[in-house]
Amino acid sequence: MMQSLVNQVNEKQLKSLVENASDFAGANGIVMLANDTGSVQRFKHVPFTLFPSPVPRKDFENLVNLQPHITKLMHLLSLDYQFLSTSIQSVVKADDFMANLFEIYEKTHMLSNEALTLGLLRTDYMLDDCTKLYKQIEVNTISSSFGGVGTDKIRRLHTTVLKEKPLKSIADKIPPNLTLENLGKGLAHAWNAYGEANAIVVFFIAEQEYNVFDQRVLEYEIYRENPSIVVRRELYNSAVDRITLNESTRCLYIDDEEIAVAYFRSCYMPHHFPEKKHWDIRLKIEQSKAVKSPSIGHQIVGSKKVQEILTRSDIVERYVDEETAGKIRQTFTGLYSLDMSEQGSKVVKMAMENPDDFVLKPQREGGGNNLYGAELRERLEEIGGDERRCAYVIMDKIRPRPTSNYIISDSTPNEANVVSELGIFGVSLTRGKAFLENFTAGHLLRSKSDQFQDGGVMSGVSVLDSPYLVEHS
After folding, report:
1. Whole-number Å distance between alpha carbons of 331 and 103
2. pLDDT(197) > 70
């Protein structure tokens, strides 16, 4: 269906559609800072597809319904100190970043039974053309982006620009998307649960942040939900010199303002911690009674190593019932440990002999970190015989079916065969093991040319998209 509709669009219609879509993006804040302007601040629209992409309705509904169970699984796992402390030791020894996270976890896990934690998660999937099943790519537990400008705004772009026949038949099949509203509610409810009217919400952000407006619209959504809340945006790199912890009350302050919610849009890459003091303050934040989003435990369970551990027998079943575990397991693809064992060496050999069938994944967030094909083989040739390999996992390569579309970047259309990645957002508010809230917040669809292997929107590879629901795979 999509191919025939793409073919029906003539040059004049294409020009009009692109112009309307680009104008809609600018008028509705689907924008980011350009990174090529030096000291001059310039906006440009976030790249997007001209048409929505097909997603099977039944699969979409199943994944939406499954998300609260995945959220529950990840949270309960984050509290299981005994299990995590033994399961991820090989990665901790091989990866300094993971070692620093785990050191904080070791020092603070005893506080987690009373801690308020806000989970703003996103589980990402691709539809595997071989099995006809959606397979999990990862669970993002920190700084899950594009819930602001990439969800309902993109839905409205497509439904507005494609409102005339024959394209309206596709636009009418795009589902509602309340992600931004629900993420804002999550943060506002976390502030309310903290219980101090004068305390603030802090967004800890990274330097050279181009995705500012995705964060800003979430801030404004908090104000819409509760106008009395004050949000501060703070560069984590410099804020560390102004953060203090009252060790008797466990209240956290920046300057003289008490922090109710510490929301991280930073602290997920090693360069976010240039000095020891940045780790020291991350520890103080975790020791405080402020609501963390994420907690250090949530951040650790979002690692690729934990993703691999969950595919092992009887692990998921520790935290959810057997029927739910079966549904979650159906989304798993093959993941393999590279621990220093005979089995780990067999996995290295298997991946080097068939590099196009696998992905080499480090314990990093942010997109563009995975290795494929020749690069995978080269890295394993370098590290495959020593403990450095323990910092990675191997995953079966998911093979999605491409569909025809146009990618719009800088108001210019490029026809491409695209593959799509469906993300489902989940919100949870917990006190220890008790769930105060746990619900599916919405969805995000990102697509990229099938010529690219890896990379997110901010790296210029993926673009924003909308799903239109079809009745078959």
Report:
1. 31
2. yes
Distance from C-alpha of 411 to C-alpha of 231, rounded to nearest angstrom: 33
Residue from 87, 145, 337, 405 carrying the catalytic annotation: 145
The residue from 365, 420, 448, 466 that is catalytic is: 365
User: pTM for this one?
Assistant: 0.96
Question: What is the average pLDDT across 143-172?
Answer: 95
Query: Catalytic pick from 140, 237, 303, 405?
Result: 140
Is 446 known to be catalytic? yes
Q: Which DSSP category does 207 fall into?
A: S
Q: Is 46 helix (H, G, I), strand (E, B) or coil?
A: coil
Sequence-separated contacts (24+) of 126-129 with Cβ below 8 Å? 126/398, 126/400, 126/419, 126/420, 126/421, 126/422, 127/55, 127/56, 127/59, 127/400, 127/401, 127/420, 127/422, 127/473, 128/333, 128/398, 128/399, 128/400, 129/399, 129/400, 129/401
Q: What are the DSSP calls for 246-311, one per residue?
A: ETTTTEEEETTEEEEEEEEES-SSGGG--SHHHHHHHHHHHHSSSEEES-HHHHHHTSHHHHHHHT
Work out the angle at residue 352's Cα, subtended by the Cα atoms of residues 348 and 355, and round it to the nearest 5 degrees: 120
365 is a catalytic site residue:
yes
Q: Is 145 a catalytic residue?
A: yes
pLDDT at 427: 98
Our answer to whether residue 140 is catalytic in this structure is: yes
User: Quick check: is 57 catalytic?
Assistant: no
Out of 122, 185, 397, 448, pick the active-site residue. Answer: 122
pLDDT (tens digit per residue) in 237-290: 999 999 999 999 999 999 999 999 999 999 999 999 999 999 999 999 999 999
Nearest CA to 77 among 309, 275, 419? 309
Catalytic residue among 282, 289, 361, 377: 361
Model confidence pLDDT, tens digit, residues 280-327: 999 999 999 999 999 999 999 999 999 999 999 999 999 999 999 999
318 is catalytic: no
Instruction: With cut-offs at 50, 70 and 90, classify the pLDDT of residue 452.
Output: confident
Q: Alpha-carbon torsion 70, 75, 81, 87, what sign? A: positive
Length of the chain measured in residues: 473
Point out the catalytic residue in the list 366, 367, 368, 460: 366
Whether the upstream peptide bond of residue 294 has omega within 30° of 0, thus cis, is yes
Percent of the chain at pLDDT exceeding 70: 96
- 366 is an active site residue: yes
